[in-house]
Predict the structure.
Amino acid sequence: MTATVTDPTSPNSAQMSPAVDTVALLDTRFILTQVEELTLVFPATWVAEIWRVSRSQILDLPFYDPLLVGVANYNGRVTPLIAAARLLEVAQFSLPERSIVVRLNQAAGQLENVSIIVDRAIGTRQREELPTDLFTAHRTGSMVMMQSHLVPANVWQPQFWSAHN
């Protein structure tokens, strides 16, 4: 996908600047978030948006894996919410009054439309600004690369509780 960018500040704004390959730019860009002491890194091509959700907007799903905090309605779509702190096993997760979430798009495969609750958004980095071993192992020191296999497939299955006599 190639986009043509117009410079609105130029005297002749009808003049077009050279085409920019936005997909190529996103392929080398990464979104950094913080989860406790860890930096959770998302490929920019996976991120649809970063938004905030209030606790009151979240519908609890008690019969599902604790990774799945619940679901929320966002822009007319129901999106599942996964706690990154539980996913990364870094802390006892407590849902704050307002949470920052990273909603993933179709490039994330099976995680399309899933929103990951993080502590805060840090910024973006180019691939060359990140440790090279982060791309071969999903964890390097205090940095973790978000990968779809981190979310177990059974998170989407209800867990049945039974009463024992």
